[in-house]
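tokens incoming
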């Protein structure tokens, strides 16, 4: 009798733990979805503001300018173009093409993520030819954090093809300090680059799906406990008493 009670107690405790963990994880996923919805709302509000000018890029902390649009003029420093390797767009692997833009009227130099280009798979060291106009260009940009860093062995090397880029280090290398923010080019250009930039906070439904799975798992364990530990024993007891 005591062993049966001990077994029931262990099963009960285990069920409560599983159900509690499942509910907690489901609530966490709902919280993540809510965070991303708030992020998407903030991004939409930032994008709806009037485009910034080059002069305004220096007037606020970089994080306060993220997701704002900007209309600027400047000259490409084409010789300083960097190709970030192992970057994806539309499921294909290639390079993100980054070129510093010297802003007009002495407002500094901004690193622009110009777009994506495929990699030469027979020769991984070959740099693709990207048409870069000389003289003053006018660009529509969306301010954004620098490209996320990928894992690399060692401290990384210079050269045109790189795994990651650091704004301060690149500015020191070019002897041209870069503004402490980056930008995505969203205006069209005849350079053959893809600019299908991913939109942040677009995977909210994934978190809803995970939450449903965790809540469903908790409900399943609760139902199994009720069936096997409460309903089934009572049914057996009624059958035995009737017999």
């Amino acid at each position: 009798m005591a062993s049966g009670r001990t077994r029931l107690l262990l099963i009960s405790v285990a069920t409560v733990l599983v159900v509690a963990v499942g509910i907690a994880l489901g609530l966490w996923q709902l919280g993540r979805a809510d965070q991303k919805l708030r992020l998407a709302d903030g991004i939409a509000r930032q994008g709806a503001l009037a485009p910034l000018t080059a002069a305004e890029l220096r007037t606020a902390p970089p994080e306060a300018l993220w997701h704002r649009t900007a209309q600027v003029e400047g000259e490409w420093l084409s010789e300083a173009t960097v190709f970030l390797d192992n970057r994806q767009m539309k499921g294909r692997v290639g390079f993100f093409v980054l070129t510093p833009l010297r802003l007009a009227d002495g407002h500094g130099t901004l690193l622009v993520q110009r777009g994506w280009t495929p990699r030469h798979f027979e020769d991984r060291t070959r740099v693709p030819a990207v048409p870069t106009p000389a003289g003053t260009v006018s660009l529509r940009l969306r301010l954004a954090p620098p490209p996320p860093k990928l894992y690399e062995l060692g401290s990384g090397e210079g050269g045109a093809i790189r795994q990651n880029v650091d704004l301060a280090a690149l500015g020191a290398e070019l002897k041209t300090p870069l503004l402490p923010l980056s930008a995505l080019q969203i205006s069209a250009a005849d350079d053959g680059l893809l600019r299908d930039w991913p939109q942040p906070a677009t995977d909210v439904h994934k978190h809803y799906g995970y939450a449903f799975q965790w809540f469903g798992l908790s409900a399943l364990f609760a139902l199994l406990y009720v069936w096997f530990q409460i309903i089934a024993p009572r049914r057996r007891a009624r059958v035995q008493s009737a017999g």
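note: The radius of gyration is 28 Å.
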